[in-house]
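To whoever picks this up:

The parser on our side crashed when reading a file containing two proteins. I've narrowed it down to the boundary between the first structure block and the second sequence. Both blocks are reproduced below exactly, byte for byte. First block:
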Amino acid sequence: MAVPGAFNGLVGKAVAAAGFEAAYVSGGAISAAAGVPDVGVLSLDHFARVIREVSLASGLPIIADADTGFGEEEMVRRTVVTYAHAGAGALHIEDQVFPKRCGHLDGKALISLEHAAEKVGWASRAAKAYGDGSFIVCARTDAAGVDGFDAAVERAKAYVEAGAEMIFPEGLKSEADFGAFREAMNGLGDRRPWLLANMTEFGKTPMVSFNRFGELGYDVVIYPVSTLRLALGAIVPALAELRETGTLEGRLGAMQPRDELYGMLGYTPGTPWEAPAR
């Protein structure tokens, strides 16, 4: 399943309108949209507000980034419950030391395997206790870029043992690495987890198509910051043109017309707008 990132409700509506079956809420995109770097400075409540906005606007299942869990065990549990209340159906928690870094930057550091597995266990128990128990806990490991591929496999197996149903190996550098990681997880037999791949641009991972990830055995492929990068890739030069020329008339063809926006919002001017029931 291909899961594009949505950093606000309108982008969530666009993801749904394009026919995708789920949306991803990225910590990096939330942070950038708030004007801050992806170093864990925004609160759990801030993340939950965006998740709720995207969930309500799109009506789609949401996979959400939970960074390092906003703290230790108690906060990890609170994060699961808060995300579920906000409309997420799954989250991933990572094993970096706080303050974390983008997974495709150098200089990352990891908490101990034992500590990370304990946090995954708390998240898993919270997920099973909440609602109907369908909430999915995905464990992300950044070990490949810190301690090497074998360490990432070791950590992934420990996280599955702790209760993770999905594993997210961050920062793998080749299709061969993705394939080898899948094979290592196949060795878990009946406990083999679902796998999530991160197809972010300008990072450690080469551009790999969704279909190819499927051939390599990956169940979910996220595109976390793509929509934000596309938006800023259009906004920045348009603002420069406005500053230079005093008009955006030459950019009209690149803009979404008013009627298309209203159609996406389900709004007809002059008539009461009914928010979609969720």
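<<boundary where parser fails>>
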Amino acid sequence: MSITSRFNRLFAPDGKCFDVAVDHGFFGERAFLSGIENMHQVVQTLVDANPDAIQLSIGQAPILQNIPGKAKPSLVLRTDIANVYGKTLPAQLFSRMIHEPLEHAMRLDAACVVVNLFMLPNQPAVWEQCVQNIMALKPICERYGMPLMIEPLVMKDNASAGGYMVDGDIDKILPLVRQAIELGADVIKADPTDDVNEYHRVIEIASGKPVLVRGGGKVSDEEILQRTYDLMQQGAKGIVYGRNVIQHDNPSGMTRALMAVVHDNATPAAAIKHIEG
């Protein structure tokens, strides 16, 4: 199977994608489990809402893939695990790739695999581990025609920020996104910039590869819909949101609202009716 055929499963015919990330339990943080305690229920709710893809770990992916029928979201498989998200960081940080990631991905019929590229303040060893993970993963992805999604993630200092926080500084995001491209990313999953109106520069630096925008922490309906609309206008090919969907009182409605923004160019005022109605 070629990368194009799997791209056609990941992206809708319009070339856009909404991937709902529910792989948060992989990272060992209690706060990340809010809204995803019952994964069978979460996955079924998302399947019913019908986003383009659902992002899961090797342990939870069978919940999606064991659901009967052809009409369900594609699987994006998380291939790495890290301990960098806590309010107080441990003495030794790591970002490690699972063993035989492509064997798992093929067995689970994934349409794409995803791996992190962390840039943490004063933690070059974690960045190096991520680079090593990507360099090991890329040739195997090429061999099996598996799209590689790289997640360049610039983080603020956990202690000063009171826990894991995204750094939206465009001067830090641009070189890390470009590095992900240089390492062989087929898809970029990047954070929004502090000034959303500058996001076209992230699209440009990605050299024609599709850019999907991370959602980050939960915000109001109005804010996430407006931000998503603005990012799509800047040239993003879609979004990868988790907590803004799974921690919502109406995850199905929020999924439909975001799908309308991504695929139908719906305004925030029009999209929010999917939640309210």
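After patching the parser it read the second block fine. The chain has a mean pLDDT of 93. The CA atoms of residues 82 and 95 lie 4 Å apart.
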